[in-house]
Amino acid sequence: VKDQLAFYYSDNDYESFLKFFEFLHGKNKFSYQDYLRAYELHINYLSEAGLKIPRFMSSSHEFLQFLYDLNVISYFEETEKGQSFIHWCFKDRSYSNISPKVKTGMNKYEIFYGMSKALNTGAKLKVKKSNI
After folding, report:
1. Which of 75, 107, 124, 131 is the most buried (most CB within 10 A)?
2. What is the pTM of this model?
3. What is the pLDDT of residue 129?
4. Separation between Cα atoms, residue 28 and residue 57, nearest integer Å
C-alpha cells in the first residue's frame, strides 16, 4: 500500500492516509456509521491543521472505495441462512467486473488483519473526551 501511494501521491497524502485510522480508535471491525464518524473527524483534523485533503479522500464514499480497491478493507453481507459472506475487492474482481464497488451502509467492515499493526488497529484505544 505504501509503495502504491508513494508512486501516485505525495508523502503528505500518505501521512493523511495513516492518520485516518487513528480516528477509528483502534477498531479493526467497524460499522458504516463508525466509518462516517472517523471520516468526519479526520477531515476536520486536516482542515484545522491547514493540511490539504488528498484527492482519494474527497468524499466519504470515494475514500471507502479507495480502501476497498487497495484491499485494506472488506465488507460483510448476511446470506439468507444468516451466515456472513465476505467481500474483498480482489475476490469480487473479474473480467466482467474489473472495478467492483464497495457497498455503503453495511454493519461490518473489517481491516485486513495483516495491516493491523501498521495501521495501529486491532486493539480498542481509550478515547479522551476532547477527541470526540
Report:
1. 75
2. 0.88
3. 58
4. 20
